[in-house]
Amino acid sequence: MAKPYPRHYYLNDTVYFITAHVYKKHSYLDSENNKQVLLDTLNNVLDESRYKLYCWVILKDHYHFLFKTRIGEKLPGLMKQIHKLVSIQINDLDEKKRRKVFQNYWDCCIRDKKDFYLHFNYIHQNPVKHGYVEDESE
Prior knowledge:
Layout: E1 15-22, H1 32-48, E2 52-58, E3 62-68, H2 75-93, E4 102-109, H3 113-129
Antiparallel strand pairs: 1-3, 1-4, 2-3
Helix pairs in contact: 1-2
């Protein structure tokens, strides 16, 4: 039986933590070019929406970012736009046609300052956790 997805709350002027996985945990974000495509797209889409990006991490099969919304109800469309644009560009770079790149995303509203720093530190520790680096400063 499939796990039910948690209810989404889309709030204005709220900090969110986002996690998104690559489809079937493939390593589509392994190359520096593909990571840069995701980062550039993320920055452009968030800038256009006047959302504030606090921090991010991109690994080979998933990414996280922490940001503040302006209009919360736009979050699903924003994520769809990011994933669509990145999928098109990565598939072009990898010379693939219509390959599904992203599985889904999960969002979490940040409750307070302590919760903010818990997620902020989680993002910075993620490459260490997954064995990409030995120290978060790398």
